[in-house]
C-alpha cells in the first residue's frame, strides 16, 4: 500500500515540477518578447506535434486545451515550428515510395513497441492484392518476397488484421465474378 502511495506522490511531484517549469518558461518567453517589442505567438497542436517540438529543443510554453495544447512561442521561432509540425507538401512530392515505406515500417515498429504488441505479417501477396491494400486506408509496409520476387510480404498492426482480411476477400470475390 505504501509503495502505491509513494508512486502516486512521485507522479504528483513530477506533474507539479512540470507545471512550474512551464510557468517559468512562459514568463521567460513573455519577458523576451516584451524586450523585443513583440508579442508571443500561439498555436493549437496535438500531443504528437508537442513531442516533435520537445524532441527538437524548441522553447515554448503550453496550456492544456482538452486533447490538444495551446503553445506559446517567440515570433522568430514561428517558421521553424510550422516546418516541424506541418511537413511541407514539397517534401512529400520528393518522397519516393521506398522512403515512404521505410518511414511507415519504422512507425509501425515504434507503435508496436509502445503498445507491447508484435507486428503482424502476411506473406506472398500478388501485385493486384498489394495495389488494392495501397488504395485502402490501412497503414502497412511492404517488402518483396525473397523466394519469389513477383510476390510481396506486408507488415501491419494487429488491430488492422480484420480490415486486411476484408479487403483481400473483397478483391478475391470481385475476381471470381
Describe this structure in words.
This protein has helices at about 1-35, 45-55, 80-85, 90-95, 95-115, 125-135, 160-175, and strands at about 40-45, 60-65, 70-75, 120-125, 140-145, 150-155. The strands form two sheets. A three-stranded antiparallel sheet has the order 1-3-2. Strands 4-6-5 form a three-stranded antiparallel sheet. The N and C termini lie far apart (about 65 Å). The protein has seven helices and six strands; from the N terminus they run αβαββαααβαββα. With about 180 residues, it is α+β, with helices and mostly antiparallel strands. β2 (about 60-65) and β3 (about 70-75) form a beta hairpin. Helices cover about 55% and strands about 20% of the residues.
Summarize the structure.
The protein contains seven helices and six strands, in the order αβαββαααβαββα. It is an alpha+beta fold. β2 and β3 form a beta hairpin.
Strand fraction: 15-25%
Distance between the termini: 65 Å
Mean pLDDT, to the nearest integer, reads 86
Inertia-based shape = elongated
> Considering DSSP H and I runs of 4 or more, what fraction of the residues is helical?
55-70%
Strand count: 6
How many helical elements?
A: 7
Q: Strand order across the biggest sheet?
A: 1-3-2
Largest sheet: 3 strands, antiparallel
Structural class: alpha+beta
Low confidence ranges: none
Helix/strand order, N-terminal first: HEHEEHHHEHEEH
Radius of gyration in whole Å, from Cα? 23 Å
Amino acid at each position: 500500500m505504501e509503495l502505491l502511495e509513494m508512486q502516486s506522490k512521485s507522479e504528483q511531484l513530477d506533474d507539479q515540477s512540470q507545471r512550474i517549469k512551464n510557468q517559468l518558461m512562459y514568463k521567460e518567453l513573455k519577458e523576451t518578447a516584451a524586450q523585443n517589442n513583440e508579442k508571443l505567438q500561439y498555436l493549437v497542436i496535438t500531443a504528437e506535434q508537442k513531442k516533435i517540438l520537445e524532441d527538437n529543443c524548441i522553447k515554448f510554453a503550453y496550456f492544456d486545451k482538452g486533447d490538444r495544447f495551446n503553445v506559446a512561442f517567440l515570433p522568430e521561432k514561428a517558421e521553424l515550428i510550422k516546418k516541424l509540425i506541418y511537413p511541407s507538401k514539397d517534401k512529400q512530392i520528393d518522397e519516393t515510395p521506398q522512403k515512404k515505406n521505410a518511414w511507415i515500417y519504422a512507425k509501425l515498429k515504434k507503435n508496436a513497441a509502445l503498445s507491447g504488441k508484435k507486428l503482424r505479417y502476411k506473406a506472398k501477396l500478388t501485385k493486384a492484392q498489394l495495389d488494392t491494400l495501397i488504395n485502402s486506408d490501412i497503414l502497412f509496409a511492404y517488402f518483396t518476397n525473397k523466394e519469389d520476387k513477383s510476390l510481396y510480404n506486408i507488415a501491419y498492426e494487429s488491430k488492422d488484421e480484420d480490415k486486411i482480411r476484408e479487403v483481400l476477400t473483397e478483391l478475391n470475390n470481385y475476381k471470381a465474378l
